[in-house]
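Write out a record, focusing on structure:
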Amino acid sequence: MGGGFMGPKGGGGGGVGYPGKLTRSVLISCVLGAMGGLIFGYDIGISGGVTSMPTFLEKFFPSVYRKEESDKSTNQYCKFDSQILTLFTSSLYLAALASSLVASYATRRFGRRISMLVGGLVFMVGAILNASAVNIFMLIFGRILLGFGVGFSAQSVPIYVSEMAPYKHRGALNNVFQLSITIGILIANIVNYFTAKIEGGWGWRVSLGGAAVPAIFISIVAWILPNTPNSMIEKGELQQARDMLRRIRGVSDGEIEAEYNDLVAASEASKQVQHPWKNLRLREYRPQLVMSVLIPALQQLTGINVVMFYAPVLFQSLGFGNNASLFSAVITGLINVIATFVAVFGTDKWGRRKLFIEGGIQMFIFQVAVAILIALKFGTSGKLTELPEWYSILVVMCICIYVSAFAWSWGPLGWLVPSEIFPLEIRSAAQSITVSVNMFFTFGVAEVFLSMLCGLKYGLFIFFSAFVAIMTVFIYFFLPETKGIPIEEMRVVWKSHWYWKRFIPHHDQQVNANSV
């Protein structure tokens, strides 16, 4: 039995939506909750920075250090190709994949806040281990703990925000999660830029240990935040849920009746589902399952994390000096933050589909442009004699325009859309699939990037641009618009879609009618 019940005022598909305001209470709760993305973003930004620091490489990856320092004529495409260096970066995402599956149970059983709290605490322990690492084992083990923290946070935060936010503002508030990821990346890039200048060569410890700061912040936030009404209802706290719903919507008790009844009805349907993982395979959930797999997979196949967590290494491979490469990473991080505000303020105005499609077209054009610029200077040999300043600026500009397109499209929407399309009975399990797929492909891309750069050379950017073209076509034909649809009535968009409607059972219409 699916979600999507419609109360007297309920709404998708042309009905009048639930009453509610963007209250101070819900704004603070959603913004603070969405800050859970800081730990994910900080890690993405910090990894590439420390792996471009000579003292860090000398201590943990001496073979890469010797290749970089001793052989100045080495192929620019292959100078950082090292499996153990790759393992340092990618181990986090494999751990995040595993932990997100555990987080599904914790989120459903104990609430969204508890998962956020666990994520913050485990991430903090991982940061301390990394900062104090004396050997590669400590370094990798710390990364794995960071991954567990990221998995719990990424699984619970989007659900928390989607359930707390009024449906008219759900897109903007949920996109704050992606905004916090970009802020985390920017902060990490700035930290790397300054710690690389610390005399004595221990700046990398400050960079890695700095991850504890957002972890402590998220842990405190998770401790003080209220639970969502949905989570309270799932735990049988009906009166508390009603009071919370009235407080966050800022309307009278009578005005929340329709939304409250729909939440209770969705919770009752959820309790009938003993095995949400098994139910995900039912035909009626096929549209959501496809989106929960393909959207996060395609998000990573844009190649964005290649740019973001390997930015300093990438720029250094393009002939930038160490400090110049770190500074260029700061610039891309700043563009990433600024462009995300377009999604925060535009998603609920223009809709998800328009931003997805425009962003895809822009990313495709400028990825191809980057490939051409690299090919003209490096060819297939990877040898570089001199990179003119104007040429360097042009490469950075193209990368920044590409990053900005991702920041207002596939970046935030890749988290928003999956979190808002699932009915309550499968929501936690389905979000775990979204996070797991995201982390699996992030791990895969991180694991093979340096080897692919060495093998495909500038063709690597053509490789990713092909996926950008495919996913833009996919969105055009198969993703319905979810703007302005209450989260518990989302099934209406699938019932009216030219392709997905064949998967929605005919009795679903009668179920909705009976609840009116």
About this structure: Residues 178 and 411 are 7 Å apart (CA to CA). The two ends are 17 Å apart (CA to CA). The chain has a mean pLDDT of 82. DSSP finds 25 helices and no strands in the chain.
